[in-house]
Amino acid sequence: MKITQKQMVIVVVILLAVLGGLLMIRSQIKDVQINVPYNGHGGTYKNLLVTMDTPDPSVVYHQGFYYMTFTHDGIDIMLLRSKTLDFRNAEQKVVWYPPVNTMYSANLWAPEIQFIQGKWYIYFAADNGQNENHRMYALEAVTDDPMGEYSFMGQVTDASDKWAIDGLVLEQDDQLYFVWSGWEGDENIAQNTYIAPMSNPYTINGPRVMISKPDLEWEKAGGPPYINEGQAILKKDGQIHIAYSGAGSWTPDYSIGLLTLEKGADPLDASKWSKAIEPLMTRDDEANVYGPGHNSFVTSPDGSETFIVYHATTGINDGWSNRRARAQRVKWNEAGHPSFGSPLSLMTAINVPEGSGIYRSVDAIEEVDGYRYTGIVTMVDTVIPILFHYKNVTGETRALTVALNGQEEQQLKLAPTLADELGYVYLQGSLLAGENGITLQGADVKEHIYAIEIPRYEAEYTTIFGDSETQDNPFASNGSTVFIAESKQKAISFSNIKVPSAGEYEIHFAIANTSGQEQEIDITINESKKQRLTISSTERNQFIPNSMIVKLVEGSNAIHLTNATSPLEIDYIDISAATKH
């Protein structure tokens, strides 16, 4: 009898229930010194951030979600919302359509989303079908939901009313400034960087000041016209920078430069701005990355890191085609100046932003007797571990009810903790394909639960070796898997794996094995002794968890898979509490 994928999920749920699947892990374990604060389960991601064309990406992080807008074929304003920087399965919504037959009905370029003075704004350039009429416009959100309705606030312009694109607001010392790319006159000779004061988020109340023009050789590539555009604000320790893109956006030489304001100076004083002579990010032919540019900056969920989000292509002759969003860390030198580095290849596994994957209760939906956590997305029905962060200083074990999608209910028991420590407890649950909600209910839930997370690590975001390769698979957890060839060599490495505290954990390797018989693969944790894992025989596209208890350390762990005895296909690994067999 053949077992369907749905039946297999049910079997796995029953087995996990029998095994318990529930264990409290304290943030302090006897004889273990805590040196690394736990800040989420870590993991890696890879560029691209999204599979569709997303030129001119503008990304912000707010109350537990990342939001992205971009040039959406020049016809409307679209927003994406995701719990992580991975927007591949993000919620999508067009939040505004332009009316017909106006000066802003066509060629909507480079929308910029910003949260200013407690409200959401989107700035965009548009025209009436004729490029020389491009001007900047503003939308204001009607509610506090950035995915909701917007009101058109009109044109954002100074008295010159010249050609303008790529505008956004700089906030500094309770003053607002508008920064944009524009023409000096009425002809398309060069695009300069301008700044002007504002009386509110959609009104300029002073003359524009040019703070940069494309006068460096690298800025002139592909011209004329010569380009300064795609401005983005970057701040650190009281220092203001404006990143901008130079060279023709239609060329592979499109690059990112930097303007820096003298610390404490007036942003309207052009003499106080300096320009980096060389671009901070440019094409990398070896990595097959061309035309990196028109970026934005966004923080990690915990606010400790800054990421640059930019578009680029993979073909030297792509021009304006295939421009898709990518992201990587911004680094800083001792003088407080940023470094963007070379654009990373699509094969590079990048550590996720610090604090990623944590669904904090302060960002959850409050209900009468609990919290509801949303935005939990999977592409298939799946069983998954849920890690709860809590504090319980009552001296007694407390019980809460966990409901998945309003149906599956389980009891969650919280052992006592000390006043200055968090406890961590795992529970197994079933998610459905699409977006899921997890509800916690109980008299004490708001006093006890700080956050939840889903410690799943997708194989396609790891470092792969040899003949291993990523492949699309609609039956996989995130739509992709890694094919592992029969080989004695290293096949795949999961890195930046983090757990609440050092100790024993159970790792579940979701692997399809269509050989018709059991196979084996070596598992190495960090640089410890190899362990042999037996892989059950499965049907095609059946990713059955094969489990192993291992010891993990605090901080970052690496899990290496080598020496597969047969071709295998791995979907993901999950980490949960070690169960007693």
Structural write-up:
Strands 35, 37, 38, 40, 43 and 45 form a six-stranded antiparallel sheet that branches. Strands 1-32-29-34-26 form a five-stranded antiparallel sheet. Strands 11, 12, 13, 14 and 15 form a five-stranded antiparallel sheet that branches. The protein has three domains: 5-41 and 358-455, Jelly Rolls (Sandwich); 52-83 and 92-285, Tachylectin-2, Chain A, CATH 2.115.10; 457-577, Galactose-binding domain-like (Jelly Rolls, Sandwich). The protein is globular and about 75 Å long. 3% of the residues lie in helices and 49% in strands. Strand 3 (58-62) and strand 4 form a beta hairpin. The chain is built from two helices and 45 strands.
In a nutshell, what does this entry contain?
GO terms for molecular function: hydrolase activity, hydrolyzing O-glycosyl compounds. The chain is 3% helix and 49% strand.
Please give a handful of descriptors for the protein shown:
single chain; 581 residues; mainly beta; Jelly Rolls; Tachylectin-2, Chain A; 3 domains; 6-stranded antiparallel beta sheet; 5-stranded antiparallel beta sheet; 3% helix; globular; disordered N terminus
